[in-house]
């Protein structure tokens, strides 16, 4: 239940942040929005990746705690899982760079 | 992009090409060193050397790759070892080369990584197609009733092509982010005495892992293509 609540709060904040940015940037114009967009892209992506990697690491550590002899067998899939989740955040970083590149000067 | 002074500025060839040539030459020299170490080895190379030598290091690396290949690919794993060993070692050397401040690494540029990802894609698809032919290979994607099978076929073909993009961007973005972070950490006067050590450690760690992930994913794609072909 607590996990669901935490996730719901995080999702609500993530959904309301663009509203906040819109309200603040009324006079900013297109280029300001590009900067906000890039920041939001990488921020939200790292939020998701952080949660995913946290779950992965937590379950891996729990598995090792239950069965210390399985540490070697747990470690390799954990590293693979962490790297694949990381790559999703990096896809968003690429998009953020592309958006930042559109800002002149 | 941060353009630090590098050893490549003397010749006016683009840094992408120069760093790739340098990485290729390094891999070639290390391979030659291992070959001559093997020629000099006791008992014709069956027994490992007594000390830490280049040959022992490479044997440990390749043994790791071989055991993974045996697990994912199955019986014919030895046929793909040249590709997997070369990919893994080449990417490892290129990643580590990029961490040294004066050199650039070929893996920071999207062109080299795209080339490697295309090689992995062509090999994994070609293996499946060569086993059972193009029609049967495509037919295995289509499962279930005919009105779902078309949909699944389109999605599967698309996801196979997206593998190239994901392999490329994963490697490029990881290396580019690490190099950029190292450049930023070295830019400020006082913190640059302490922080770059941690960033360099993270960079080495990520280099190893990304080389491993690229090789492992290639193995998995080959294994998937083979088992889909054999059903």
Distance between the termini of chain A: 48 Å
* Annotation, overall tally of beta strands of chain B: 0
- What best-fitting shape of chain A do the alpha-carbon axes yield? elongated
Which fold name corresponds to the CATH topology of chain A? F1FO ATP Synthase
- Helical/strand content category of chain A: mainly alpha
CA radius of gyration of chain B is 21 Å
Share of residues in helices of chain A = over 70%
| Radius of gyration of chain A, CA atoms, in whole angstroms | 18 Å
**SSE series of chain B:** HHHHHHH
Question: Uncertain regions of chain A: pLDDT < 50 for 5+ in a row?
Answer: none
- Note the quaternary state here: heterodimer
CATH top level label of chain A: Mainly Alpha
Give the terminus-to-terminus CA distance of chain B.
48 Å
Summed up, what is this model?
With 105 residues, chain A is mainly alpha-helical. Chain A is 87% helix and 0% strand.
Characterization of the model:
The complex is a heterodimer of chains A (105) and B (231). Chain A is built from 3 helices and no strands. By secondary structure, chain A is mainly α. Chain A has a single domain (2-101), classed as F1F0 ATP synthase subunit C (F1FO ATP Synthase), CATH 1.20.20.10. Chain B has one domain. Helices cover 73% and strands 0% of the residues of chain B. In chain B, helix 2 (54-72) crosses helix 3 and helix 3 (81-99) runs antiparallel to helix 7 (195-230). The model of chain B has no long low-confidence stretch (mean pLDDT 84). Classes of the chains: A mainly alpha (105), B mainly alpha (231). The interface between A and B is small, with 10 and 12 residues.
SSE order and pairing:
The complex is a heterodimer of chains A (105) and B (231).
Chain A: H1 2-24, H2 30-66, H3 71-101
Chain B: H1 15-39, H2 54-72, H3 81-99, H4 110-132, H5 134-139, H6 146-185, H7 195-230
Helix pairs in contact in B: 1-3, 2-3, 2-7, 3-7, 4-6, 4-7, 6-7
